[in-house]
Amino acid sequence: MKPRKILIAGATGLVGYAAMKHFAREKSCEVIAVSRRRPDETFGARWLALDLGDAAACATAASEFAEVTHLVYAALYERPGLVAGWREAEQIRINELMLRNLFGPLERAAPGLRHVALLQGTKAYGVHVRPLTVPARENRSEMHEQPNFYWNQERFVREAQKGKDWSWSILRPVLIVGDSVGSAMNVIPALGVYAAMMRRAGKTRLDYPGGVGRVAQTVDADLLARCIAWSGEAAAARNEIFNVTNGDVFEWPNVWPAIADALGFAPGDHVPLSLDQEIRPREAEWAEIRAAQGLKSGSLKDFVGLSFEYADYTMGFGRDRPGPAAIVSTIKLMQAGFTEVMDTEVMFRKCFAEMQAKRLLPRPR
């Protein structure tokens, strides 16, 4: 394989962190990772502090991008009101601006650019506003129906690529689960903190706090990183869009026993509880848990970010009847050559174990 120089934008997010970890361990890769916050670990990548919303800072950083061959664009701006922000014009504007600010200087500095990986998701199919047409397929997205920064970024990349030697791939993962700190959409720290609060209250059984289940899918962040790496080299991925999942389906109540066990509990009952309303404000209690357990995870604001709200959303808090299935097709991806799969219960156990090993969450008793 030819030597690669990978630029990863959004190195502290779920996808960027996993991609940084994957590429930094590849002997044929040199990795530059950019983000506003420093990642808790860089895995040998060279990290640069960079605010993609600052055009002047991106232009100044361009000298660092010489000889970049692959861009993994995983940067994301989310509004403080997470779910409501998905439809707001300001969120769309800023996410488009961030990509433009980075890409112009990058393309001028890196004439050997070969590939751009761009991330979207199931909001491309309108999952946040109505039931999906099952299974959702890549050629049936709603580009003109629902405003979304996906479309602005996609149009920009398609236009920039015309007449150029480099190619792009757009990946549409479902619910992403992995190891990252302070992300807007990572259920692992949110559920881990919830469990720690229940342990502090003397509970030995972990109640399920979400709503009535629906059939859905998820994807391990490390599996997604390997898919991103594949897309950067596979001829079948040039200028194509792919859904990405673990390959199975799940309902939150059905995987809850595995989650409870990974956190050191027996599974409890279905007791709806808004993590955003009831757990997020409890900074003082979390500080006591951190001190008692010797944790390195920081405040709830820094560790969990907006993910309490996201956990409520994805687990369907307040839903009192089965929700519509949210299933995407991965036939196109498998036929193109990426066939890796993962058991979703194994994924949850792995991700909690990673944060426990790093002393970000209490170890199970």
What topology does this entry show?
Layout: E1 4-9, H1 14-24, E2 29-35, E3 46-49, H2 55-61, E4 70-73, H3 82-85, H4 89-109, E5 115-119, H5 149-161, E6 167-173, E7 175-177, H6 187-200, E8 205-208, E9 218-220, H7 221-231, E10 240-244, H8 252-262, E11 266-270, H9 275-278, H10 283-293, H11 300-303, H12 307-314, H13 331-336, H14 344-357
Parallel strand pairs: 1-2, 1-4, 2-3, 4-5, 5-6, 6-10, 7-9, 8-11
Helix pairs in contact: 1-7, 2-4, 4-5, 6-12, 8-14
Task: Give an account of the 3D structure.
The protein is of the alpha/beta class and 365 residues long. It has 2 domains: 4-176 and 220-244, Rossmann fold, CATH 3.40.50; 181-217 and 249-357, Rossmann fold, CATH 3.40.50.720. The protein has 14 helices and 11 strands. It has helices spanning 14-24, 55-61, 82-85, 89-109, 149-161, 187-200, 221-231, 252-262, 275-278, 283-293, 300-303, 307-314, 331-336, 344-357; strands at residues 4-9, 29-35, 46-49, 70-73, 115-119, 167-173, 175-177, 205-208, 218-220, 240-244, 266-270. The strands form 3 sheets. It has a 7-stranded parallel β-sheet, with helices on both faces. A two-stranded parallel sheet has the order 7-9. Helix 1 (14-24) crosses helix 7, helix 4 packs parallel to helix 5 (149-161) and helix 6 crosses helix 12. The protein is globular, with a radius of gyration of 20 Å. It starts with a strand and ends in an 8-residue tail after the last helix.
